[in-house]
Write a structure and sequence with these properties.
The strands form 2 sheets. Strands 1-2-4-3-5-6-9-10 form an 8-stranded mixed sheet, with helices on both faces. It has 2 domains: 217 residues, Alpha/Beta hydrolase fold, catalytic domain (Rossmann fold), CATH 3.40.50; 70 residues, no CATH class. By secondary structure, the protein is of the alpha/beta class. Helix 3 links the parallel strand 5 and strand 6. InterPro entries: AB_hydrolase_1 (IPR000073), AB_hydrolase_fold (IPR029058), Carboxylesterase_BioH (IPR050228). GO terms for molecular function: hydrolase activity. Keywords: Hydrolase. It comes from Mycolicibacterium agri (Mycobacterium agri).
Length: 322
């Protein structure tokens, strides 16, 4: 007897493009149900979600775009800011017929997710932040260096190295530089041999980072997220964004669901996807979408400061994923 359930019969992800005012956006779509938007990090592409997309599509319509200028999407008209990326995501989801969505953001994508919730609070059901940017000033030396004059030529030269050489070089670096992410960093450098990708990487980096560290912070506006279910996940061995950023966030937002994965670096959704998937699915199943009220939003606009009142009241903090 065939015991296959309906949830097991998920169609294969489809690769599509859509022409919008911001240009042509390439995206992967899979599944059916409430919209779940997956937003990659700086210099990345939608392929970063390949280990999660099939399982998440069992309960949601999963949409994973290449951000403007990244992957197979067109370059934007010069604006690589968080606000411009948030507008592009709003345009994409509306064009695809989704008025509301939950948003998962990795690294830069976490900052974009936070910016989207600030600019378009009436659109966002939930926030899921993975190794998120925007929670503190510190960031890796490599990312700070990428914003300096002449970085384009250096990154181009590194990208032209054979992939095997880059991988061996990354693996040989001190742990405080690459941690457990040597393979992911090597793949990123190889992708940046493409001039379009490199332009997007450098110009996006300069919009949020300078030689001192992260120049854009979500701290002042995070208090506006009261009532939005929030999950924050990170790796304990992240050398790109210090885990203390997320621990501090968790301490200030006690109602947020938190997941710290022992031994994982900056890409837990790639390197430890099985350990991340369960808490994500549990969070999506157990929380209710945020109910937006303009009156409530205006009240919060007038008094929001710091982290006060952030997070979801729907669920207690998730235990550490060991």
């Amino acid at each position: 007897m065939d015991t296959t359930s309906a949830s097991d019969l998920v169609a294969a992800p489809q690769e599509r493009r859509i022409d919008l005012a911001v240009g042509s956006i390439a995206y992967t779509v899979a599944g059916d149900g409430p919209a779940l938007l997956l937003v990659h990090g700086l210099g990345g592409t939608r392929q970063t979600w390949q280990y999660l997309i099939d399982d998440l599509a069992r309960t949601h319509t999963v949409i994973a775009p290449d951000l403007p200028g990244h992957g197979e999407s067109d370059l934007p008209a010069g604006d690589y800011s968080l606000g411009a990326h948030a507008c592009a995501l709003r345009d994409l989801t509306l064009a695809l017929g989704h008025k509301r969505f939950s948003v998962v953001g990795h690294s830069l994508g976490g900052g974009i997710a936070l910016q989207t919730a600030y600019q378009f609070p009436e659109r966002v059901d939930r926030l899921l932040l993975i190794s998120s940017g925007g929670l503190g000033p510190e960031v890796s030396v490599a990312l700070r260096a990428a914003t300096l004059p002449g970085a384009d030529a250096i990154i181009a030269a590194l990208g032209r190295l054979p992939a095997a050489v880059t991988s061996r070089t990354m693996a040989a670096l001190p742990a405080w530089l690459s941690g457990p992410d040597a393979e992911q960093i090597a793949d990123l450098l190889t992708a940046l041999r493409d001039s379009k990708q490199r332009t997007a990487f450098i110009r996006t980096a300069r919009s949020v980072i300078n030689w001192r560290g992260q120049a854009v912070s979500a701290r002042r506006h995070t208090g506006l997220l009261h009532g939005v279910p929030v999950l924050a996940a990170w790796g304990s061995a992240d050398t790109t964004i210090p885990p203390d950023h997320h621990r501090d966030f968790a301490a200030r937002v006690p109602d947020a669901v938190t997941v710290e994965i022992d031994g994982a670096g900056h890409y837990p959704h790639e390197t430890h996807s099985a350990r991340l998937l369960e808490p994500i699915q549990d969070f999506l199943a157990s929380t209710k979408p945020c109910e937006y009220s303009e009156q409530s939003w205006v009240r919060r606009l007038r008094r929001a400061s710091g982290f006060g009142g952030v997070g979801s009241t729907h669920r207690p903090r998730h235990p550490k994923a060991g």
